[in-house]
Each structure stands twice: as structure tokens, then as C-alpha cells.
Amino acid sequence: MFSATEWTIIALSLRVSLVAIALTLPLAYALAWLLARRSFPGKLLLDAAIHLPLVVPPVVTGWLLLLTFGRNGVLGNWLETQLGITLMFRWTGAALAAAIMALPLMVRAMRLSIENVDRRLIHAARSLGASRFHAFRTITLPLSIPGILAGAVLGFARSIGEFGATITFVSNIPGETRTLPLAIYTGLQVPGSEMAVTRLALISVALSVGALLFSEVMMRKAGRDAHVL
Amino acid sequence: MFSATEWTIIALSLRVSLVAIALTLPLAYALAWLLARRSFPGKLLLDAAIHLPLVVPPVVTGWLLLLTFGRNGVLGNWLETQLGITLMFRWTGAALAAAIMALPLMVRAMRLSIENVDRRLIHAARSLGASRFHAFRTITLPLSIPGILAGAVLGFARSIGEFGATITFVSNIPGETRTLPLAIYTGLQVPGSEMAVTRLALISVALSVGALLFSEVMMRKAGRDAHVL
Amino acid sequence: SRAPSPDEGPLVLAASSMQEAMLDAAEQWHDSGHPKPVVAFAASSSLARQLLHGAPADLFISANQDWMDSVEPAGLLRAGSRANLVGNEIVLIAPKGQNQAINLSDSSSFTAALGDRGRLAMADPQAVPAGRYGKASLENLGLWPDLSDRIAPADNVRAALGLVESGETPLGIVYATDAAAASDRVTIIARFPETSHPPIRYPLAVLAGSAHSDAMDFRDFLLSPQGQAIFVKHGFSAGRAE
Amino acid sequence: MFFELNLTHQIGGRTLELNARSAALLTGLVGPSGIGKTSILHCLAGLSRPANGRISIGGKLLFDSSSGIDLPPEQRRAGVIFQDNRLFPHLRVQQNLTYGMKLTAPDERWITLQEMCSFLAIEHLLDRYPSTLSGGEARRVAIGRALLAAPHFLLMDEPLTSLDPARAEEILRLIERIRDELRLPILYVSHNPEEIDRLSGYVIRME
Amino acid sequence: MFFELNLTHQIGGRTLELNARSAALLTGLVGPSGIGKTSILHCLAGLSRPANGRISIGGKLLFDSSSGIDLPPEQRRAGVIFQDNRLFPHLRVQQNLTYGMKLTAPDERWITLQEMCSFLAIEHLLDRYPSTLSGGEARRVAIGRALLAAPHFLLMDEPLTSLDPARAEEILRLIERIRDELRLPILYVSHNPEEIDRLSGYVIRME
Ligand SMILES: Nc1ncnc2c1ncn2[C@@H]1O[C@H](COP(=O)(O)OP(=O)(O)OP(=O)(O)O)[C@@H](O)[C@H]1O
Ligand SMILES: Nc1ncnc2c1ncn2[C@@H]1O[C@H](COP(=O)(O)OP(=O)(O)OP(=O)(O)O)[C@@H](O)[C@H]1O
Ligand code: MOO
Ligand SMILES: [Mg+2]
Ligand SMILES: [Mg+2]
Question: What are the phi and psi torsion angles at C5 (to 5°)?
Fold first, then answer.
């Protein structure tokens, strides 16, 4: 059904997106919670900063990643010499780019859900002996699952489709950083390769339809459709 | 403060994004409502279709727009001969591209909010004499304002940053389709133009921080912070 | 199509790598009393696809013959207007101040210059024209087998240039014109022999649908000695019919 | 007959059956917790649809499965006082009160906003949002909102909960006046035998 | 003294003041709707913070603005029966019931889940989500949830609303047993003078 090259591309895209989303979820949720529940100086600035990857053209984001995490970048240098982690030209760098592009979408969806959790329920939990954290874990967190799932799906879809920041930051190396969109782009540059491009585009679509289906099943399983909403 | 060229670019970007968001809002809300409140055959397909622009690389989206709305495309041909509307190489085409890229983000945020509107309130409204539509207009719609605003901000930010689909569909014509990201990209192609690029990137950022601020003010004004959530 | 207006020049679709030179040429044409042409830059592939879908434009300048060839059979070009505007060559560059001696016939001098981690930046050798020329040269010189997994394939040739400019890669392959545009940050350390790759030519043509009275005149200006001089100034070689 | 209620209704896997007629304008509806009183009120108001049966109130046929009649809630004009109030959280008290009133032709109204507010002693709450109301305040607003819509009949689900005895007494008197002066059919759910005894001409018992 | 309540509390621009002491284990709290009873309970449970004052219940100091003492709610161990139930919508009845119980050391518990369920007649509801409960069913679950957490004192905000007389009577007896056998301080809000008369050794009146 798929050629070996296609398999490599699919596997790489999945790895990049799943790692990106898995690592970003907790951070995104923490940011969403902060924005939904706390007020602090600089809140609007933080909010704006989270939205940046959405506004700034992806190529510029990639270029900033290059400046920061490249060999000569402050963080890149530190990561390389201190931790032995290289991001440039690596799939890990692609995951970082995907994560950053997905972050604003994830935060917004989660924030909406957290804002909708009734504080009176948290009061009830506290009066029953729950610490702040226990109440968060047993009330806020499960009640915001719709937002978490929505955020994860949006973020995953965005990661699977990420192109500009990735190619600028980690280049288009077959087997290492050539994810589905990069492979599609490569195809588009060659006259008459519409067939190959179409196959790859359909694969992208199938992956995210899969993610959607998965999230709907999770929703049902959590018994939410009927009860939370 | 800004050069004439910069003004042209800013004005064009604003026009493209505002038109895109204004035209997409009602459609996005209708889709969000359908997905939140109705079940029908093909719902998952519709849901998947809405997410497509997120997953498929923007360049491919642009190419599909070209196929559909180009002179030889079915819709493009019809629009041109029947209504005299040309999208190719026009800012209207850029607005269409921006709208399509923003749609999935808008729908998701709105959907989350609509799902959170308690149906018992709608029952109460109906018993007080409200038709289905009146109840929608006076209860569901205002109670989902947080989602509408979140969707509009996300969508606006995404439109302001849209690059790949735009350049593929309507090219990079100064004064007509060269929006901020395209101008930034053009600048990036020229060695030594970091200053100009940085200025443009900062303008993008300022525009969307503006949008964020505006949405926060709207939120406060609607008196929502305290009462709806 | 775009209504030809007296104060607006023809719409030119040009490959991104021609940016500085084309703007320069448009400026000079304007100075000689003509309405200023509007130039839109994008990847040749993108421009060709737009033309195939009916984009209303007056001139098309592609970075390679393939994409010009792809629009010609569709009857999109005005008969007899196609010509080679300029030529170019590809060069090996390094960040300014890092003058490794590279022997183009010895892959070990490359690997030495790259170190154990460094990569060779070039436009995507599979797709982007600049990369395809580069790959052809490397193959021709017998270097490809040793270097093929040391490549950093970039979006376009200018992105490859950027990787070298910022020092992220120690070596890169770009057009001579790119190297010229960034001469304060990169050094040319070798020129690939013209015989090692297919000839690099930028074809230009007036589009069949063009109604702009200046389109043909501007084409002729670009091909005239005065026009050619502008391109040569930017590092291109004069166009020659094949 | 003010109430002719014959219906079967599926709820959570259980089948609820009710066959009752009452010639009393104010009819009580009693039964142990969980028996289905609230569910019945919802069927009468048109908010849930019975599996089958026939519902006629005040001589008006609202639902008849055999002839396919099923008036939508807004045409039934039930004044429902919900057990859980259901105030609109995004509207101030004043807007909550006038929500149904505005949907009513002026000549059908039988009480003004001012009269209702002073009667329920909620004038000082008009600018508030529901989330800031006390239990009894919210209850009074819910009662006012339902009555201001000039309903054709009333469905009251334990209307006096959260009210102090003095207020409860006033509202009881209002209900009696509505019954006697406006002659609106009222179905009244309560767990308080005294209230039921005092008000209702007939009691439907669910068991 | 089981209750020593001296506090001023700001609510919606109004200042609420309460100075009361009661040596009765079961103390009633009465007053007209909107006077501030629910607000006071929230202060005692640690869910809102009084502007200043001193709160001691069952001999335990919970709040003292002069010495900066302010125990967080989970350390006060108030068993609150909220006027509006506040069941957790995402948890089944069983999980709602055991929410506080699980946070209590086993040797502190004085009733098992089974006993509580059969007493409140809610065994058949254990698998349900709160949104499917009737008014009285939800009330009983809320009562069960608060008691199963083995609280050190009880704050009951009109606990018998929505309950039919038979159930109400059973719960009244349970409350009396809790008072007499467990000797827990109970503050009991009700608008029903009979309930108050029957239960409370002392009544705090707010006016
Ligand atoms: N979705 C559901 N699934 C299962 N059972 C349900 C559902 N909705 C309601 N019920 C049950 O239907 C019964 C009738 O509920 P209803 O609210 O009509 O009772 P009620 O007579 O008003 O009781 P109360 O006096 O306590 O308010 C209850 O036992 C309730 O648990
Ligand atoms: N956020 C707020 N803004 C303004 N007023 C408020 C706010 N919250 C509560 N109040 C007012 O505080 C007063 C006390 O409310 P509380 O709920 O304590 O009354 P209560 O004695 O319990 O009444 P009930 O018997 O009706 O439940 C009420 O008049 C209420 O309207
Ligand atoms: O001008 Mo190119 O298309 O980057 O070789
Ligand atoms: Mg009920
Ligand atoms: Mg109260």
C-alpha cells in the first residue's frame, strides 16, 4: 500500500507530532490554568507571547529558532555542551518547532474549558477535605477534559501540518526531518509530480481524521457527552 | 514612524484579515453550533473537513484553492463569468486563503463554548415563550461569547500570519497581495535586510497584541469575567 | 485579466533568486520614462502553477527551463517571445573568514571542512533548481556518494545561503549571484566547472494573455545590452540562446 | 375539566404512567421524591415529549399522540417555576424578569414589572446578576419571571423552598389570587401537606 | 461554648455583622431571605474570609484576624450541606459520596457507605450521574456526601428542601442522633419554625 519512503515519512511525522504534543500538553495546560484562574502583572504579555507563533510567519519563527537553538545560539550552545542535546538538523528540532506552533492553539482551547469550571464545585471539594491541589486534580482537571482533548487534536493537526518553521530550522533531510508537509513541498517543486503529492496529502488527512476519531472516542468513553455539558 | 511601503503592507494585511474574519465568523459559528448540538450522518466527516486546512500544508491548501478558484477551476470560472468576481492575484483571494486557514481554529473555540451552554436554560426560555430561534439568539449566542471572542482572536492572529496558502494562491504582488508575512519572506530572501524584516515582524506582533487587548476589553465590557464563568 | 492602466507597468512574475537584479532593472526602466513594472517574486514552481491556473500576468521569468517548459505546451506563452534572459553559475561558499582549502576532486577535503557534525547547505537537491544543479555537479565530480548524507537541504537557495551566513553550516552551495549579494558575510571558496552540470539558464517569456502594451518592450529592454549589464552587475552571466 | 392528563413517559429506562383528571383550578401534585413529578411538569410544558397520551389543560389540547398534536413550548404558554430556578446567568435580574414579558402582547399582561417587583420585594436586585442572589432571592425572581410572561396556566415545582415564612405566606396569597381572580389553572407540586391542603381543590397522588 | 461567632464580613458592598455564642450543640440560624445566612456558613467553612473577627466551633479556633489564624477549608472539616447541593457533575453518585470519605482516615469514619446508602435509600442511584437525579435524590446524595466525610461539625443550609415528609422525618432523626450520639456541633439554617423548634437548643436570629 505504501512505499518504503512513504513509511519512513509517515513514521517520522507521527514521531515528531506525538512527541511534540506529549511534551507540550502539561506546559500548555499550566499556562491555560494561569491565564484562566490567576491575575498577575504581565498576564497580558504572557498571553501575547503565547500567541506569537500564530502571528509571526512560520519562516520567521524557524529563523528565530535557528538563532536561539542553532550551534551559535545561546540555548543551542548550552544544550549541546551541557546536555549533549542537538536540535539542529534533527527530528528533535522538528518536534520543538511543531510544539511551538501548536502551543497557542492548545492553550486557548484548554483555557476556555478551565474558565467554565464552576468555582462552587471547588469550594465543595475543599469543604470535603480536599487540598487546593487535590481539588484541582479531581475537579478542575477532569472537568476540563473537553478542552484538553480539543487542544490536543488542534495541536496534533497543526503539528502534522507544520512546514515553514520546520524547514527553516531543521532543513529538509530525508529520514531525519522530512515530515509529510516537507515531502509534499518537495514534490510540488518538481513538475508533474501531482500523483505523489496527492498520495502524501491524503495520508496527512487520514492521520488527522484518525486523531479526530480518537478524540471523539475518548470523549464518549469519558462519558462526557451526556453528563458534563 | 512607518514608511509608505510599510503603510501599504499594514493596511493590506488588516484589510485581508478583518474581511476574512468578519466573513468567516457567522459560518464558523454555524458550523460550531451544528457540531455541538446536532447529530447527523457525516458529522465526523464535516468535522474532519473543517480541520483539513490545519493538517494539510498551507502550500497544498493554496494549490487546492488554485484548482478550485483559479480561472479554470469550477468555482473560479463560475464566480468570474456569473458574478464578475476574480480572486486570483487579488487581495480578495488572500482574504479567502486567510479565512480558510482560520476556520478550524474559530470553529473549535466556538464549539467548546456552545457545548458548555446548559440546555436547561434553553428549556426555561422556551417555556417563557421563546421560539427555538429566539432562545438561540438570546441564550446560546450571548453565553457563547467567550468562545466567539477566543475564536475571533485565534482566527485573526492566524490570518495575520498566513503565508503558504496565500503566496501559492495569489502570489506576492506588492500593493495587492503582499501582506506582512509575504513582505517578511521577501525581505528574508535579501541578505542584509534584517532590520526591515525585524520591523515588519514587530508590526505583526503589535497588531495581534492589539487584537488580544481588544478581545480582553470586550470580555470585560460584556461583564463576563465575573458572571458567566 | 488585469486591466492595463497607463500608470501601472506590466506584471512580472519572477523567480525569487532574481530579486535584487529585477528590482534594479525595473527601476532603470522606470527612470527612462515608463510606468514601473510590478514584480512579484516566488518560487518558480509556485509561479508556474499559478500561470497554469489562469493567473493574469504579463511576463514570466523562471529559474530553470523545466517550469518554463511546463507552461509552454498549454499555449500560455506568446509565440516567439521566449528567450534566455541570463545565466548563472554555482559556487561553494563558507562563512566569511573561514577559508578552508577545498579540492573539488577530493571528497576528503570536504569532509575535513565539514568536521564530524557539520553539514553542506544547499537548496533541496531533489526538487529546487539550485539544488539539482549542485547535485549534478557533485555527482559529476564523484563527490555525491560521500556527501549525500551530509546535506542540509533547504527550502530554496536563499535559505541555504542563510545557513552559511549565520554559521550554522560550514559550507554551502549557492548561485554566484547569491554569494555576490551576501559578499560581506560569505566567501566563495570554489566555483563548480560549468561542464559539471546542465547549463544554468533563466528563460523569460511574454504571456499569451498579456494585453499590456509595455510587456514586449520591457522584455526587449531586459534582453538589450543595457538590461543585460544590470544583471551582470548582480553576478549573472549574459543570456545566450542554446 | 381543567386538567386532563393521560400519558406514558419513558425516563431513564423506567415507564411513568399518569391518568388523572381534575376539575379543580388549583390541583396539587404530590408523591415521594423521585416518583416523577418534575418529569410530568416537563411533559406538560412541552419540554419533554411523552411516549404517548393526551394532555389538555384549561380546555386546550396541548398534546395528543393519536392525532399527532404536539404544541411547541412557546405556544403552550406554561408558566413554569422550575425546581432549580434556571435564571439566565448572563442577564441582570431586570432582564430575567422581562424575558417572557417582552414576548407577550401588552394587552395580555396582567401585572406590571413594578407591581411584581414591589410585591416580591426585589426592586433592589434589578441590577444584579443571578450569581449574586441568595437562595430565596433567586426563587422570588424565578417566580416573578414566570408570572410576568402572562402564562395561560402555571406549573409550580415546590415554589416556596428557600423562602422565609412571611414571604412564603405572601406568595401563597398571590397564588390564591391568581387562581380566584385570573382563574388560571395551576398544577402545584409540594412536599408540604399544609400547603397542599390549604391551596388545592384536588390532589393528584403519584405512587 | 460550641459556637463562638464574632465576625464582620463584606458582601456586595454591605457589611454583615454577627456576634453570637451558643452552648447548644444544635444551634439554629434563622432570618429572612437575603439576610446573610448562607454567607455566614461560607465564612465558617473557610470558603470566604471575613473582614475580621474570631470564629471558634466545638472549642477549636478556626479564624482569628487578630492573631492571623485562618485555617484552610480542608483543615476545618466542616460538613457543609449546600443550599444548591453542588454535586460533582463528572462523578457518579458513588464517587460523589466517597469523595470526602476517601480523604478521611478510616478510624475517624463513623458510618459506612452501605449504611448511609440504605439509610438515605439511594443504593439504586450509585451508578448514576448527578444530572439525572430528581431534586430530592440530589439532596439526599449531598447530605450523604457531607456526612461520610466524618466532619467535625455540620453546617446545614435548609437540608430538608425537596424531601417528602417521610424522608424528611428520617433525616431529622438522623440529625438528632448525630447530635446526641456523636455530639457534633451543628448549625442549622431553616425557614421552617417547626424544624427549628424541634431540633435546636438555641437559635441565632439574624435581622
Ligand atoms: N436520565 C435519567 N436516567 C435515569 N433516571 C432518570 C433520568 N432522569 C430522571 N431520572 C429518574 O426519574 C425519576 C423521576 O424524576 P423526577 O425529577 O421527575 O422526580 P420528582 O418526583 O420530581 O422527585 P423530587 O420530588 O425529588 O424532585 C427519578 O427517580 C430520577 O432519578
Ligand atoms: N456578589 C454579590 N454582590 C452583591 N450582593 C451579594 C453578592 N453576593 C451575595 N449578595 C447579597 O448578600 C446577601 C446575603 O446572601 P445570603 O446568600 O447569605 O443570604 P441568605 O440569608 O442565605 O438568604 P436565603 O435564605 O434567601 O438563602 C443577599 O442579599 C445577597 O443578595
Ligand atoms: O531561484 Mo531557485 O528556484 O531557488 O533555484
Ligand atoms: Mg422534582
Ligand atoms: Mg441562603
Answer: -115, 145
**E69-70 and E26-30: which strand pairing?**
unpaired
Rounded mean pLDDT of D36-61? 96
Indicate the residue type of E167: R
Neighbours of C3 (CB within 10 A): 8
Tell whether ligand 3 has an atom less than 6 A from the beta carbon of residue C43.
yes
**What pLDDT is stored for residue A180 in this prediction?**
92
CATH class of A4-228: mainly alpha
Classify D12 in phi/psi space as left (phi over 0), alpha (psi -120 to 50) or beta.
left
Instruction: Tell me the C-alpha to C-alpha distance, in Å, between residue A86 and each of A9, A72, C121, C168, C235.
Output: 21, 12, 17, 12, 36
Helix (H, G, I), strand (E, B) or coil at D184: coil
Nearest CB among B108, B146, B185 relative to A154 is that of: B108
The Cα–Cα gap between C38 and C50 comes to: 16
Q: Which residues contact C2 (CB under 8 A, 6 or more apart)?
A: B89, C11, C56, C57, C212
Q: Which residues pair with E20 in a beta bridge?
A: E5
* pLDDT digit string, tens, across residues C134-185: 999 999 999 999 999 999 998 888 889 989 998 889 999 999 999 998 889 9
State the average pLDDT over residues D148-165: 94
Edge-to-edge order in the sheet of strand E186-189: E78-81, E153-157, E186-189, E26-30, E202-205
Minimal C-alpha gap between B51 and chain A (Å): 7
Beta bridge partners of E154: E79, E186
Residue in D157, D163, D192 closest to E33 by CB: D163
Which residues in C58-170 belong to E strands, given as ranges? 59-61, 83-87, 90-95, 120-123, 151-154
Ligand 3 atom, smallest distance to C158 CA? 4
Degrees (nearest 5) of the Cα angle E150, E151, E156?
Answer: 120
Contacts of A89 in chain C (CB under 8 A): 119, 152
- Single out the residue of D63, D27, D60 nearest to residue D44, CA to CA: D63
The DSSP code for D112 is -
The helix (run of H) or strand (run of E) holding residue C174 is strand C171-175
CA distances from E199 to A7, B120, C156, E44 (A): 75, 36, 85, 21
Find out whether the beta carbon of D135 lies less than 6 Å from any atom of ligand 2.
yes
Name which residue sits closest to atom 1 of ligand 1, judged by CA.
E132
Instruction: Decide if E162 contacts D191 (C-beta within 8 A).
Output: yes
pLDDT digits (tens, 9 = 90+) for C114-147: 988 889 999 989 888 889 999 999 999 999 999 9
B11 grid coordinates: 493596511
Give the ipTM: 0.89
pLDDT for the residue C5: 52
**CA C225 – CA C223 distance, rounded (Å):** 7
Q: Residue D173 corresponds to which cell in the numbers above?
A: 396569597
Q: Tell me: the pLDDT tens digits for C96-115?
A: 987 777 888 888 889 888 98
Q: Whose CA is nearest to atom 24 of ligand 2?
A: E33
Whole-angstrom CA distances from A64 to A53, A70, A173, B39 are: 11, 9, 20, 44
Q: Which atom of ligand 3 is nearest to the CA of C17?
A: 1
What letter would DSSP give residue D132? G
Going from N- to C-terminal start, the domains of chain B cover 4-228
**D91-to-B115, B128, C197 alpha-carbon distances in Å:** 19, 15, 74
DSSP result, B182-204: HHHHHHHTSTT-HHHHHHHHHHH
Q: Is the pLDDT of residue D70 over 80?
A: yes
Closest ligand (CA of D137): 2
Asked whether the beta carbons of E125 and E91 are under 8 A apart, the reply is no
Nearest-angstrom CA–CA distance, B2 and E105: 68
- Nine-digit cell at D202? 384536588
Q: Where are the beta strands (DSSP E) in C22-114?
A: 38-42, 59-61, 83-87, 90-95
